[in-house]
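Sample A.
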Amino acid sequence: MLPLIHWIRRNRPVSLILAAATLALVQVVLWQLHEDGLDSVPTIMTTAADPTIATLNFTPPFHTAGRHIIDAQGVPIKLASINWYGASDADYVPGGLDVQHRDAIAALIRDLGFNSVRLPYADEIVTNNPVINPGVIAANQDLFHNPVLPGAPLRALDVFHEVVESLTSAGLLVIVNNHITQATWCCGMNPCDLSWKNDWFGGDILCSVPQSEEGWMRNWEMVMSPLVSNPLVMGADLRNEVRGLWGTMHWDEWADAAEKASERLLALNPDWLMFVEGISSANDLSGARARPVQLSLPGRVVYSAHVYKWSGWGSLRPFSGRSYEGFAATMWKNWGYLLAEEIAPVWVGEVGTPDAPSKGDTNYWHHLVRFLREVDTSWGYWALNARKATGEWESYGLVGDGWDWASVRRDYRLADLQRLGREEGQAH
């Protein structure tokens, strides 16, 4: 049988498998919350259930129409994404490659019910393209056998592109994300990593990884050029959580840069979608009303928001402590209006909460899932990973140290995400 990617390239519809339930267990979350959701944490009970499998057919390439992402046959699709990080961090490669083969991780993502992956990278893996420590890809020894360059050292971009190939061969869409400049955990207060460039304050001298706007765009071209013929590479999430120094980034400045980078990438492949995050750590897309991102090709812009419990900039009460009405009002103001007014699609590219939730975590998550269900938009969960590059447990992760089906954390988060992923659209 031909690999799936060859089958896709013959322009047949792509069939993605969305798992509607876990193989052995689902979690039933009993929300015992009062009006503001702060009086108790959920009681979690496990029950056995038979899996129900649903399919979603779509045909690349994609474009946008109003609030929807549309496939080549005019069918709206909703992204149910997972973030798989690591190429943006100190090991320079996606996490888990020391434990499982990349093909096995791709299959696990698909079987958990996700149809797409947000795959972050750091500019450092492009500008330096470091040689990879064999230990961090111990379960992927086949990567060392390069028939083109026998004996050549394995570098970060080599691994990144092979991971993309594994994901798309499993039938998953990939959105490549420029996450950070220096490869490290995001996001701190290092001024060198606050935006897509750091030369405006002397970063070319002060920063470990100096970067100009032109350098940022060249890096994008180097990352994406090998992917132009892969139809399941959906596009580019141009920069993670643009914020400036102490939240000083203006939307107009970021929109200008996003347009420049988008035009460069669309020159490589005019079918790609350009994902443009909001400012204030991707919370705020309100500026897109007066100053939309406009490209030479229509139907290419998808806006992206991030929503966590600590979000809610400009308020003394973060989302962990809001009523649903207060939470929803901010969502409508920041990005929901783009959907309601049929301006553009919105992909909520990062949401997440820990496996052992506090009252505030529970309140935020309950409100978020309700709002995502009501507006029926695309989303991405942070994250798949078991641990951070430091070895610290990733409490937001959905897998354990085995990076396999047996180690999946079958809790309230996965149950909610699987329901969101299989629900029919409610908003039009």
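Sample B, a different protein:
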Amino acid sequence: MTGSYGSESPNRERYRLSFTVGGLLAPQGRIIASFFVGNDGAGNGSVTGDGEDTTRIPNSAVGRSSAGREVGERVTRIRRRVIDENVLAIRTESANARIVSEVVKRLSALTEAEIRHLAEDDVPAADVQALMWVAMCRYYAVVGEFASEVLRDRYLMGAMTVSREDYDRFILSKSMWHSELEELSDSTARKLRSNLFKAMVEAGLLEKDSDTLLPSLLGRTVTDILKERPESFRFFPMR
């Protein structure tokens, strides 16, 4: 998918490198997903005062034939409303807009079925974490490649930890083909690394203080949903 939304192709010339805030953003992702599917009690769709279409994914069997399709840019239809109503209860307007924009971009890489499950009232917290990790890995190709080439590979080799040094070596190897990694300021590079490790801890993939790898035990429902995109399993430390 081209543009600023949807999964990032690993063949792009330049990586998306804007995951500098928020960690996994799992609670925020679930809240915004519920607005997109209409679980907020506002019905199945409307048009805002400025003409913005906020049509949502249907919860019923309607549209299930396209359940494996990525949401893509359609998720931006509710972005303005989520910002204006400050549904995430963020104190400053600028921070609110920044976090909402980041969550919406990540959600754009999920399929309709994944968004629907994310928005369910009784969705297990572990499923929310798994889907938001998948969203981050799909939206940011460099994160997905780190997950599959370092996180999962180290688990399969029997390694007990994933360290910052492992990340630095990974980035150094990728910079041979992606000069934008070399162009990052030191502060931005540190933020990207810190935020990725924060996300892995929040996703239940690493222990916070020891960086010990935690094997993923995905629930049955989220496993069945991810089977529509089986390449997603490579983002997890599992066999």
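Observation for Sample B: DSSP finds ten helices and no strands in the chain.
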